[in-house]
């Protein structure tokens, strides 16, 4: 007699990109470009090239580390208000565009790798909410 609660021999693949407010723009070896619209509009660039991990938000570096021996798989960072709001320059000097959030936002990236350092899973959290989840 068979067990009715036993899972099938092959489970369905869970590959894909899961995001309500984000889009994968570019994907390469140890590199991702993601555009998102929540909790603010922006572009994230993650790069792990040349033994240096780097996270950029809207063109500003918010976290980096030289990774000679280990690649960080769980990275927490803070996005300053200046990066969130953008700066406008006028004759009085740089001014903040107050259309964005008024406080820094906490960000987090989780990465799972295969044996060949291919990214198996890439998750982006902003303000304790998963904004982007890619499973390959």
Question: What does the model show?
Answer:
With 136 residues, the chain is mainly beta. The chain is built from one helix and twelve strands. The strands form three sheets. It has a five-stranded antiparallel β-sheet. A five-stranded antiparallel β-sheet has the order 2-3-4-5-6, with no helix packed on it. A hairpin with a 4-residue loop joins strand 4 and strand 5. The protein is globular, with a radius of gyration of 18 Å.
Offer a quick outline of the entry:
With 136 residues, this protein is mostly beta strands. It has one helix at 81-85, and strands at 16-18, 22-28, 31-36, 42-47, 52-57, 60-66, 74-79, 87-90, 93-96, 105-113, 119-126, 129-135.
Radius of gyration: 18 Å
Indicate the overall shape. Answer: globular
Distance between the termini: 36 Å
Order of helices and strands: EEEEEEEHEEEEE
Strand order of the largest sheet: 1-12-11-10-7
Overall residue-averaged pLDDT value: 83
Low-confidence stretches: 88-98
Q: Percentage of helical residues? A: under 10%
Number of strand elements? 12
Biggest sheet layout: 5 strands, antiparallel
Q: What portion of residues belong to β-strands?
A: over 45%
The computed structural class is mainly beta
**What's the tally of helices?**
1
List keywords for this structure.
136 residues, mainly beta, 5-stranded antiparallel β-sheet, 1 helix, 12 strands, globular
